[in-house]
Amino acid sequence: MGKLISICAVGLTIVLAGFSYSGTPITTNKTNELTIVDNESLTLKVESDDDFRFFLKAEFDEAEQEIKFITKEPTTQIRIYNQIDAMVYLLPIGSDRVRIGKNLFEKGDYKFIFDIEGDRRMYTSNLTVH
């Protein structure tokens, strides 16, 4: 009788442990993305209202082949990551006006992180080069 109770207790533990594990991955809904630049060359999006408000102006200059930003506050640096989250560029800025040449990027997805001096704030945008 003692062995039966032990076997039932082990079985119950395994079943309860199985319920606590969820094999489905956590997915992020990206429907909240806001597009700030969209043309045949590239698309630039942000994922939050705070990020959207940080950019006073963002555009792609076709003639100069540059992405141009005017930001709400001076940016100390921009960290740029590729689609596998490896940093590809660390650009020192020190201004609220930023110009980045499109020739730095091949086709694909990139994440820009604008670091602001002071209280470690940062703003993120996602670039897709077509």
Helix/strand-derived class? Answer: alpha+beta
Shape: globular
* Separate helix tally: 2
- Major sheet details: 7 strands, antiparallel
User: So, CATH architecture?
Assistant: Sandwich
Indicate the mean pLDDT. Answer: 85
Question: DSSP strand (E) fraction?
Answer: over 45%
CATH topology group: Immunoglobulin-like
N-end to C-end Cα span: 69 Å
What portion of residues is helical? 10-25%
Radius of gyration: 23 Å
Number of strands: 7
User: Would you list the SSEs in sequence order as H and E?
Assistant: HEEHEEEEE
Number of domains: 1
How would you explain this protein's 3D organization?
This protein is of the alpha+beta class. The chain has helices at 2-20, 49-54, and strands at residues 34-38, 42-46, 55-61, 66-81, 87-101, 108-116, 122-129. The chain has a single domain, classed as Immunoglobulin-like (Sandwich), CATH 2.60.40. The chain is 19% helix and 50% strand. A hairpin with a 5-residue loop joins strand 6 and strand 7 (122-129). The longest helix has 19 residues, at 2-20. 11% of the residues are buried.
